[in-house]
UniProtKB/TrEMBL annotation:
Classification via Pfam families: Methyltransf_25
Secretion signal, residue range per the UniProt entry: none
Domain Methyltransferase positions: 75-170
Stretch list, region Disordered: 261-286
Protein name as annotated: Methyltransferase domain-containing protein
Length: 286
């Protein structure tokens, strides 16, 4: 599922329904995971089981760009069923807050926590939107956002919100896509959110990955229908047919945006937060 290139924007309620249906259908069968695995080959991180372009090279790149230390807080924005944040939190000994629009995805993410050996005190999940995370100011040392930013109804507001949550010196790593040869306004968008562009890492193999995956979806259309149901299979096949023709001109990158370090040695909210799940509002973490 690749909302960075798919579908025109739809209202928040409907988006959640769409994503809920996808995550619920995916949980009923391992067919979707098998097709991702077939498309990625050895680059498929089985345990992560992302619904995105997250392969081993991306996990490695995100790890290198985040430059986080044990005990720091990582936010997984648009976390889906949580595999990316859980894998990074365990590998790097981090605390984790994951959030997603979809309550179904969040329930699965919370269920998967124990499989990564992480207690609720180390890894919390909540239903929230990119434009309104409910997280405290300057609370995160790092944020990952993989193939989810395209789901924001207002991308400027979403970037400002993630910038607000980031601690001084912290980094946001996010997948983005653009047309080849276009001049995306990433620097201006980052500046408007109080961030600077630290790295733009090209992901030249990513469009071919989507092409392999979409061809597999089309080739397994009957199986998708019987295992996921007609409606969900139709959504996936529609996405495949809509996005496939656009892939040859697609440029995929990992952007690393940094919040300037205002006081290099001083403590900030991120350093004083004791555990993930600390709530500034009444939403309950899972
Ligand atoms: C393609 S999936 C990727 C999930 C996860 N990042 C991964 O890589 O497996 C996109 C996710 O973004 C979530 N999403 C879309 N729009 C969102 C928004 N405005 N706020 C929060 N989450 C959103 C969806 O519910 C979905 O779980």
């Amino acid at each position: 599922m690749n909302p960075t290139t798919a579908a025109p924007p739809v209202p928040a309620g409907q988006r959640s329904v769409q994503y809920d249906a996808f995550h619920a259908a995916r949980a009923r069968t391992d067919l979707v995971a098998r097709l991702y695995a077939a498309a990625m080959g050895e680059d498929y991180p089985v345990e992560v089981a992302a619904s995105s372009s997250c392969d081993w090279p991306l996990l490695g790149l995100m790890t290198a760009r985040l430059k986080m230390r044990p005990g720091q807080l990582l936010v997984d924005a648009g976390c889906g069923t949580g595999g990316i944040g859980l894998w990074l939190a365990r590998a790097l000994a981090l605390r984790l807050e994951g959030f997603d629009l979809s309550p179904v995805a969040i329930a699965h993410a919370a269920d998967r926590r124990s499989r990564f050996g992480l207690p609720a005190e180390r890894a919390a999940f909540r239903v929230a939107e990119l434009e309104n995370t409910g997280l405290p100011d300057a609370s995160a040392h790092g944020i990952v956002c993989v193939d989810a930013f395209g789901g924001a109804a207002d991308r400027s507001a979403a970037l400002r919100e993630l910038g607000r949550v980031l601690a001084p010196g912290g980094r946001l790593v996010m997948t983005r896509a653009a047309r080849q040869g276009a001049a995306p306004a990433w620097t201006e968008q980052a500046r408007a959110a109080g961030l600077t562009v630290e790295h733009v890492d090209e992901r030249p193999a990513e469009p071919a990955l989507w092409e392999r995956l979409y061809q597999l979806w089309i080739a397994h259309a009957d199986e998708l229908r019987s295992e996921l149901g007609e409606a969900q299979a139709q959504n996936m096949l529609r996405e495949a047919h809509q996005v496939l023709p656009k892939l040859p001109g697609r440029r995929a990158v990992l952007l690393t945006l940094r919040r300037p370090a205002t006081s290099p040695a001083g403590p900030c909210a991120a350093d004083t937060m004791t555990r993930p799940g600390h709530q500034p509002d009444e939403r309950t973490p899972k």
